[in-house]
Amino acid sequence: MPTPKTERLDLRLTAEQKDTIVTAAAITGRSVSDFSTQVLTERAQEAILRERQVRVDAEAFGRFTEILDRPARVNEGLTELLSRKPRFID
Fold it and tell me: What are phi and psi of 73, to 5 degrees?
């Protein structure tokens, strides 16, 4: 069962923008609401993905993986911290 659509989003458009959207929705045989929701959601997901992706060239990635493959070093401060009794107990 599809998730019910309960939220609204109000937009201000120029007449030209509205005509373009209405025409595109009609060409694809969909309602303006359905067309706009899909297009806006796809573009929003693309923007989020672009912001969250990290791109590096092969040389930089090679250096990064080389560092990850090194043996871990002992961190005395971290060892001491993790050996302490927790202050908060669930």
Answer: -95, 150
Residue 12 one-letter amino acid: R
What is the rounded CA–CA span in Å between residue 25 and residue 39?
10
Tokens encoding 56: 């590096």
Three-state SS for 61-82 is HHHHHHHHHCCCCCCHHHHHHH
CB 39, CB 47: distance < 8 Å: no
Q: What's the pLDDT tens digit per position in 2-24? A: 889 899 999 999 999 999 999 99
CA-nearest of 69, 51, 73, 72 to 61 is 69
Q: Write the CA distances from 54 to 51, 57, 64, 66, 69, integer angstroms.
A: 8, 10, 12, 18, 20
Measured CA to CA, the distance from residue 58 to residue 39 in angstroms comes to 33
